[in-house]
Amino acid sequence: MSSRHATETARRRTFAIISHPDAGKTTMTEKLLLFGGAIQLAGTVKGRKAARHATSDWMELEKQRGISVTSSVMQFPYKGCIVNLLDTPGHEDFSEDTYRTLTAVDSALMVIDVAKGVEERTIKLMDVCRLRDTPIMTFINKLDREGREPIDLLDEVEKVLKIQCAPVTWPIGMGKRFKGVYHIHHDAVHLYSPTHGGKIQRGEVIQGLDNPRLDEVLGGQAAELREELELVMGASHSFDKEAYLAGRQTPVFFGSAINNFGVQELLDDFVENAPGPQPRATETRTVDPSEETFSGFVFKIQANMDPQHRDRIAFLRVCSGTFRKGMKIHQVRIGRDVKISDALTFMASDREHVEEAYPGDIIGLHNHGTIRIGDTFTQGEQLSFTGIPNFAPELFRRAHLRDPLKMKQLQKGLQQLCEEGATQLFRPLVSNDLILGAVGVLQFDVVAHRLKAEYNVDASFENVNVQTARWVSCDDGRKFEQFRDKVAANLAVDHGGDLVYIAPTRVNLQMAQEKWPEVRFHATREHG
Length: 528
Ligand code: G4P
Fold this sequence. Notes:
Keywords: Cytoplasm, GTP-binding, Nucleotide-binding, Protein biosynthesis
Main location: cytoplasm
Radius of gyration: 25 Å
Oligomer: single chain
Protein name: Peptide chain release factor 3
CATH class of the largest domain: Alpha Beta
Pfam family, one: GTP_EFTU
CATH architecture of the largest domain: 3-Layer(aba) Sandwich
Bound molecules: guanosine-5',3'-tetraphosphate
Helix content: 25-40%
GO molecular function, one term: GTPase activity
Number of strands: 33
CATH topology of the largest domain: Rossmann fold
Strand order of the largest sheet: 28-25-27-26-30-31-29-32
Largest sheet: 8 strands, antiparallel
Structural class: alpha+beta
């Protein structure tokens, strides 16, 4: 491969933050951008915080339109690297979006609140990361407040999340007694000075744990620190890069994001150790980022981000080759070549037109209804990236049209929204119902809102007797036909044309599974 391609690829770091709401993801994002020099003053990302409390992230996004695009993907340079930070929705009703975003990263940062420890959402997101053994760094936040004993927290992370912890920094006290962190690898103490607001302020750095200056500054806490560290070093794992890259170990940092403290240590370590772009599986072969020809996949589609253009942006992760402005690329699913002259890149401060993009980068393609989540783009090769799932919905509603003459628009709108991953559509084999499936209830509000705004369709959603759904397949064609005949009343076709078993109760599903052992019932469906 050309040396430019190799250098550019090697310096990409593409990641997302995983955390439970309120642990400090927004604050952390803002501080990373601040340290990355992407924003001068903290506070820009903060505006989005309101979205978390609003009835719908999406509707709030709508209000903020222009801003939301920059916060979906943020790119900034740091110490010779190009960092791509992919944002994930705050509200759990949009968790599918989060899961899919995690398929487009090479590593993740887990933020944990020192007082709360491992929380429910973190556990779920960690499970998703584990599907691909995504390497994870951990930041324990809010040390300026009283919290739990650091040793206990590491213990909890190890037990609950089943991943080894390797502390890289260690806190000196907490709450009112918080004095800073000791950097285990650098054998240096970084003293804490609260610096709310946007300025980067470096506190004093004291080299060496035995340095008498430490006793001068910390008084009795210096001896405490030495003692504690002896214990910690004996009881915890030391950093093992291989174990980290394999997703078996997480390096742990402590700090206070809001006070800009501990963030730089994390970022320095991140650019040094976090993996660059990784190879990706397709249905036929593994694509290596070093390959010269371009390939990538779409993991997210976002609507109406720019009030000037009522278009949708498809977010594509570059997997190999170089993307250049004006390039012609091949959309594999529909066998079509498209010339991309106006792809977007996401420098943290603005949305800009892309000239070149390398593996690990995310580009935004204008989508006029032809791009679906999961779509692969190449320079002609018939490839299809795998691992971008649809999850079996847990909530179901029947679409009810106020004006029956609008059926065509309704169908078109729903098809479109399904392709964007906003909802899932099921058409029972034996009725004309349109059944919508979602993972979170707010998705229905968003769909109703968008049908009205974009397709001028007034639809409401009513309860329907479906509790769960499974995609079905079977190697034995004849058996599958029998199955289809016998249980037709419980079968539906999804928006991609795949067959789905829709069950009124979990017991019904279980019985069907027992009765038809040859048929496989899948809780996820890959896009394609
Ligand atoms: P999220 O995106 O993960 O949901 O969390 P976010 O960053 O919005 O932070 C949640 C709350 O925790 C915010 O307080 C934020 O200011 C606070 N916070 C974040 N980092 C730290 C920290 O290092 N120390 C302390 N003490 N607090 C921190 P809030 O009261 O909800 O909002 P605000 O009034 O501060 O804006």
